[in-house]
Amino acid sequence: MVRVVTAQTLTQAVAEHLRTLIHHGEVGPGDRLPAERELAEQLGVARISVREAIKILQQHGYVTVRRGALGGTYVTELTEPLEKWRMRMRTQAGEFDDMIDFRIALETDAARLAAIRRDRSDLATLRAAIAKLGEVDSGHAAFRLADSQFHRGLARAARNVRLETAIESARGELFSPHDLLPYVDPVDESRRDHQQIYNAVRDGDPDAAAGAMREHIERTRHQLREIVFGSEDGPLPATS
What we know:
This protein is mainly alpha-helical and 240 residues long. It contains 10 helices and 2 strands. It has a two-stranded antiparallel sheet. A hairpin with a 5-residue loop joins strand 1 (63-66) and strand 2.
């Protein structure tokens, strides 16, 4: 069947693009999005598509629109979308593990290919992302950005555009883990995991790279279970 591209699907695509930027930490709470005209030019779409996409993000609690001299579209504290995401994971049976299993399938293979296909530029990108993660001290958006840069760099090193696109999409669905956890420990754990993955990729060891990535995402699964379902020892962690 031929899928008809409509103005609504274009609007949804723009909204998803902006939402992914937020999930990845490219823009964070309090940041101002570019003006409609600028966004339209960047994305190659009409301003009406951008305007309608922003309305969608408003409805879901991602942005607020301010008027006046300091007006514009600003990212919220994300409290509402975070809570909606957590409730969706609780009520849709099986989706939680499906999402994690999908990430494991994608990113372990990407790590394996990266260990075979990476070049010096890729390794430099990964080292820079690890260094940036070690410098994070300004909040959760900064963590998400540094974390995303590492995973994006690894996906690019795999030299497979379809795989890279799928990883970006899958990671965009899981923007909330570290926003609801005590802050320091997940950062330290992620930095250690990234370093282990990097070492295997640098050494050209595909099996070690895939194994390190699997362990890293399984750790994320455990953290997410604490966030979504709580633990037997106490209530859900409080939002920050």
